[in-house]
Design a protein that fits this description.
4-stranded antiparallel beta sheet; 5 helices; globular; 17% strand; alpha+beta
């Protein structure tokens, strides 16, 4: 059964706090991006919940639009990955391959559809560096202590999408408060390598060896 003759879909828009008609940039083509897993340990129930919810959205949109482009990323370089690999005394590559296989086995058991694209962080380092450099060029980021950080104060609309003020975000922040940050909410775009890092988690950049934050 197809619903592609339906004229409109109404959704709650967090930007306006109102129910509004869903409008796509291209006619009858919907693009959706979902943050995928950080593959340092087996998926848990919370991961499964996210996968199933967005699978339902995906299936619904496939019935409405002529084309749906669904992107779900894989984070395969991260502090948690480094730590887990060290604890298990295996390489990062061995760990991420093992956990990714577990991930696929588990979500296949949930009978979810495959996304259109599933990019890995390690396969897009060049593009990530280019974006970080653009943020630096536009004075939206700064370099401190070997880190490249996004300057939250440089973006006047920060927090607008969730209708949260910066003061509220600071008071409820779960992020690291480090002395190299100008603002507690500033977040790392590029992190310098540590002496004990696995070589597979270290990449070259204009700001030194390291990895995306």
């Amino acid at each position: 059964m197809s619903f592609k003759t339906k004229q409109s879909i109404n959704i709650f828009d967090t930007l306006t706090n109102q129910i509004q008609e869903l409008k796509t940039l291209e006619k009858n083509i919907l693009k959706m991006y979902v943050c995928g897993p950080t593959i340092y340990d087996r998926p848990h129930l919370g991961n499964a919940r996210s996968i199933v919810i967005y699978d339902l959205f995906y299936r619904f949109f496939l019935q409405i639009f002529d084309k749906v482009i669904f992107v779900r990323n894989i984070t395969d370089v991260d502090d948690k990955i480094n730590q887990s690999a060290k604890e298990q005394n295996i390489s990062i590559q061995e760990l991420t391959q093992k956990i990714l296989q577990f991930f696929y086995e588990d979500i296949n058991a949930l009978n979810v559809l495959k996304p259109t694209f599933e990019p890995k962080v390690t396969e897009n380092i060049t593009e990530i560096i280019q974006i970080i450099q653009k943020l630096l060029d536009n004075n939206n980021a700064y370099i401190e202590g070997g880190h490249v950080l996004f300057d939250v104060s440089s973006y006047k609309n920060y927090g607008k999408l969730s209708n949260r003020k910066i003061d509220e975000l600071i008071s409820g922040a779960r992020i690291e408060i480090a002395d190299y940050k100008r603002n507690p909410l500033d977040f790392v775009l590029w992190k310098p390598a540590s002496p004990n890092d696995d070589i597979s988690s270290v990449f070259q950049s204009p700001w030194g060896e390291g990895r995306p934050g």
